[in-house]
Amino acid sequence: MQKQALIYTGKAKSVYETDNPDYLILHFRNDASAFNGEKIAKLDRKGRVNNRFNSFIMSKLADAGIETHFERELSDDEVLVKRLKMIPVECVVRNYAAGGIAKRLGLAEGLPLMPPTFELFYKDDKLGDPMLAPSTAIALGYATADELEQMSVLTHKVNDVLSQIFDEAGLMLVDFKLEFGLFHGRVVLGDEFSPDGCRLWDKETKKKLDKDRFRQGLGDVVEGYEEVARRIGVPLD
Predict the structure, then answer these.
(1) Rounded distance, CA 233 to CA 159, Å?
(2) What is the CATH superfamily name and number for domain 3-82?
(3) Which residues belong to any copy of the SAICAR synthetase/ADE2 N-terminal domain (predicted)?
(4) 3-state SS class at 17
(5) Which pLDDT score, from 0 to 100, does residue 37 have?
(6) How far from 127 is each of 95, 102, 121, 124, CA to CA, in Å?
(7) pLDDT confidence of residue 201
(8) d(C-alpha 63, C-alpha 59), whole Å
(9) What is the pLDDT of residues 35-74, one digit of tens each?
(10) Would the pLDDT of 94 be above 90?
(11) d(CA 100, CA 107)
């Protein structure tokens, strides 16, 4: 598979075409960004750690019968993926209160949410990724009712699979976001799963081991990611 033109540069990843129109190459960069680009930094090893972390998680999800765009690692910081027609709706699951929901509703961080909440957000940085009602997503043509139902089912299945993996490693999967797209008409999990897009706390100490270390200026950001990776068995060497 030959790497060709750069077609998109995001906050932490770059996307390249290949000589096969059905596949793309994702490059995980060392960039870190928070608050819609207001806080930016470069963190040594971040791209490599996130690539390895994402590859491990996507493989675990595939083993559980969840189709993802992941195909295979190409290098320390690049991966081959299916080319999806992305649905501009983020799916967010919250197992515990933190971040946005804690601020909106005045909840204490760490409050268990039973059952887990499921929320939709319109993916648009300029608008701050606003919350979205399913009926609005359908009315505006972002997704069909059937696609949203499949996204909901798959997101909850991902939560079941990953909550067990992290729990066995002494970690709390507090919340996470997922993005989906269409591949030859099928709803497929896209983007990435790494500590950039979820909250992970140590079960005993409640130490934050995710992107909140960067958002809140706690330091040792990549070291936190690496700790999670080692605890769940991600091969970093």
Answers:
(1) 18
(2) Phosphorylase Kinase; domain 1 (3.30.200.20)
(3) 7-231
(4) strand
(5) 77
(6) 26, 20, 11, 5
(7) 98
(8) 6
(9) 877 899 999 999 999 999 999 999 999 999 999 999 999 9
(10) yes
(11) 10
